[in-house]
Amino acid sequence: MPSLPDVALKIRQLIADGTNNAKTIAQAVNSDAAIATKLIKAANSPLFRGTKEFESTSQAIVRLGMQTTQQLVTSFTLREVFKAKNPTIKKRMDTLWVNGIEIAAISSVLAKHIPGLNPEQGLLAGLLHEIGTVPVLMYAEQYEEIANDPVQLEHAILGLSAEIGGVILKRWSFSDEIITVTQYARQWDREHEGPPDYCDLVIVAQLHAAMGKQPSEDDKMPSLEECPAFHKLSNHGKLTPEKSLTILAEAKEQIEETKLLLGT
Q1: Cα–Cα dist 260/245, whole Å
Q2: What pLDDT score does 235 carry?
Q3: If we measure between CA atoms, which residue out of 152, 215, 229, 230 comes closest to residue 184?
Q4: Which residue, 216, 154, 158, 220, is CA-closest to 189?
Q5: How many CA atoms lie within 13 A of 256 on its CB side?
Q6: How far is CA 85 from CA 94, 147, 150, 213, 242, in A?
Q7: For residues 158-196, b (16+ Cβ closer than 10 Å) or e, as one string?
């Protein structure tokens, strides 16, 4: 099982313990220079409507707030989990990460239009929705006959990743709402009581991302109109397929900015 990188664990623990001091959090973030640089870049980006350029991590944390800082640091460090040495598995890991970034960016944008959902939490949910695939690929990397058999590998991913993803996020002490995402994000007919949740958001983000692409043989996606998750979002956010497409088209620059921030 992969481990959450140390800086993300440290920040999550500090905030969980009630630490509300930007300088203390900044000291932990600064232990990883690359993450500190990304956090400052995020705080100064149009994503958070910065009007003043900040140069220190503590200033960035004050602008972003503790919860957003935690979610962004976790998001930035997750790239380290999606690593492999075998060329075939590495290519699959890279594709997995790029896909996660796209779903995360779309989820973040759509969350702004759904009452009760948080854009940064949506971003994290999108990045984590296929985390259960990582251990399957890590295992396959040890066995050349599996690593080089794409059919067998994909069947293993489809059969195991949802359950494994739930186990990972429980070990990492994530909330039930995020654990649900990794367990059911590919269950297109999922229905549940109550308001829309982050799993609904990520399901709809995947449908948007898949538009115009060739679906795989094992994963036939419904249209937005046929998807219960979209009806959940539409009832609370007054979305229609046309409106959601318009929202994403208007947010194209924001989506690209988010993908660039997470992908570098």
Answers
A1: 21
A2: 82
A3: 229
A4: 220
A5: 5
A6: 11, 12, 17, 28, 43
A7: eeebbebbbebbeebebeeebbbbbbbbbebebeeeeeb
- Residue identified by tokens 């956010």 is 237
63-75 pLDDT tens trace: 888 988 998 999 9
Cβ contacts of residue 28 below 8 Å, gap of 6+? 7, 10, 11, 14
pLDDT at 236: 78
Q: Which residues of the chain have pLDDT under 70?
A: 49-51, 214-219, 237, 264
Local structure of residue 264 (DSSP, 8 states)? -
Going by C-alpha positions, the residue among 157, 127, 138, 132 that lies closest to residue 89 is 138
pTM over 0.90? The answer is no
| pLDDT (0 to 100) of residue 42 | 87
Under 8 Å between Cβ of 8 and 31: no
Q: Give the H/E segment covering residue 209.
A: helix 198-210
Q: What is the pLDDT of residue 103?
A: 96
What is the C-alpha separation between 218 and 229, in angstroms, rounded?
20
The pLDDT of residue 193 = 93
